[in-house]
Design goal:
Layout: E1 14-19, E2 26-31, E3 40-43, H1 46-62
Antiparallel strand pairs: 1-2, 2-3
């Protein structure tokens, strides 16, 4: 997988799952590990997230 770098400090961004406070829907969060104020982004496309989770769980079952 390609690395995604923080535009401020060039650290490799952490990628993790998050949930909406009100909707409780899953999001994919990208955040700078050195300082969350540098860069923080959320992917909220539910179709894309479902596909990513499906591939992740399939990979865990196969491997």
């Amino acid at each position: 997988m390609n690395e995604i770098l923080c535009p401020i400090c060039t650290s490799r961004l952490n990628i993790r799952m998050a949930k909406g406070r009100i909707s409780n829907k899953p999001f994919i969060m990208l955040i700078c590990p050195k300082d969350g104020r540098h860069f923080r982004a959320f992917i909220s496309d539910q179709t894309y997230i479902a596909r990513v989770l499906e591939e992740k769980t399939r990979g865990m079952r196969d491997g």
